[in-house]
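Reminder: ligand-aware prediction takes two inputs, not one.
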Amino acid sequence: MKTIGVLTSGGDSPGMNAAIRAVVRSGIYNGCKIVGVKQGYHGLIKGYMEEMNLSSVADIIHRGGTMLQTARSEEFLTEEGRQKAMYAINIFGIDGLVVIGGDGSFKGAQKLNELGIPTIGLPGTIDNDLRYTEYTIGFDTAVNTVLDAIGRIRDTSASHGRANIIEVMGRHCGDIALYAGLAGGAESIIVPEVEFKIDQVCSKLIKGRNRGKLHSIILLAEGVGGAMEISKEIEEKTGIETRVTILGHIQRGGSPTAFDRILASKMGARAVELLLEGKKNRALGINGLEIIDVDFVDVFKQTDGFHQKTYDLANILSI
Ligand code: F6P
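Here is what comes back for the chain with 6-O-phosphono-beta-D-fructofuranose:
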């Protein structure tokens, strides 16, 4: 293993830069040449690559986004696109590749392994929707960003005696809503993994109002959708004025938390070690305090991992 490529793919997440830095610095420490691929798989197909040195990754550990840029490539989903990528990989003499991204990016990485290039995946997504790992890089930062927004909305919610629905990201995974809701003391948390009953939400709001509560925060995962309709229904059923805030991409930006920086640094260095040990087709994760690595095949097998106990606890604490 002489030359290692690194790319970020799919939606960016805070901590991706810390991961790139760790791959570059630990790779160079171990005597490797590191090639940075710009714009994810799109850049891999186009050959947007350049050698990185120690200075290339200076002053990035604290920055959100990804200095390598990212993309969602339609062409890479085709066999022809992947063949073009392999051509570029060979031209640049890449012996192993580190892919930082979510499940779609991992599927691409698995295909590259099949075509003969050893690949290691780092879970970079705010969604926390990869169930083989307890945390993905960027999730903790996104939860803290939502928490900050909850605090601000609570101020205005209490001033007007309103209910506020806050829609957060996460595609089909409710983890951002669940964890930000628990940490932020939300009255209700609505996620795709649990059947949603409007009457339960309304009954909590009415009980809260009757005992003098001035504000109500409802966290809604985007996978459930229908924020405006839910808000209208709440107003009709409870008579409580209800506002909607869709946080959107604000959750994806910002300086990564210490947790995400440390996770990304450990995983980036471990990815280099695995490639040097001759490993391939593996995804990195965290279990407790331990960094683990799992075959991509097992990554895609684990789809059910919603933390029901945490959801139940949030419900109990918001009675
Ligand atoms: O996967 C990360 C994510 O931020 C999801 O939470 C969200 O649904 C999606 O990406 C948004 O994608 P885009 O940036 O392409 O609008």
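The CA atoms of residues 10 and 104 lie 7 Å apart. The chain has two domains: 3-138+256-301, 140-253. We will return to this case in the review session.
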